[in-house]
Description:
46% of the residues lie in helices and 24% in strands. It has a five-stranded mixed β-sheet with strand order 2-1-3-4-5. The termini are far apart. It folds into two domains: 1-60; 82-201, 3-Layer(aba) Sandwich (Rossmann fold). By secondary structure, the chain is an alpha/beta fold. Strand 1 (83-92), helix 3 (99-109) and strand 2 (114-115) form a beta-alpha-beta unit. The protein has five helices and five strands; from the N terminus they run H-H-E-H-E-H-E-E-E-H. The model is unreliable at 56-62 and 68-79 (pLDDT under 50).
Amino acid sequence: MFQSRRQRKLKNSLSLLLKVLLVVAVLVKLFDWDIKEFFSGAAEDKTEIKTLIEEKDTLTIPLVKADSPLIEAQKSEVAVNPTPNSASIYIFNKTGLDKIVVSHVENTFFTNYKVKAGGSVNKSRLLNGDLSSSASTEVVCVGSTDYSFYTNSQQLITCKLHLFFDTYNKNTGTKLQALSQSYSVSGVGFTDAEALKVALRKIHL
């Protein structure tokens, strides 16, 4: 009877141990599967990200050549359709564009226009009516000026100024009479600059 009790006790212990081992085995297997699944998923994510980066790095953007039909068409459109309600003014003295006279003409006759500065222009061609080198504006004003200074008997300086300019619609080439003028004026001052300023004041609408 004593041995039978010991056998039952041993049997119960072995049964409990087997159950514990079985639970441990199941847990180890599950844990091992989760670890593998985690690293497998991370590896797939890394591969996908790397693929996206490589695709981005190899992305090419088509370039439009400078002489392509699209660029040429845009250039032609700008040349044919100057900026509305805009003007460019080219008035030359003996050495080149006369900025002082240009500024006065702009502020006197072209207050209703947005005046755009022109780039490199051909003086002789502009004065002969060829507006191709002028800025892309609705109207183009072209003219010339000449002024000289001398001292009078009162030791004051007199400026004699001659100015003419014609204005054209660049789209049609039509001359705009209201914005085409000719002047011969004089001004007196203590300096050349003052005498010129007085003479310019006499050129107005």
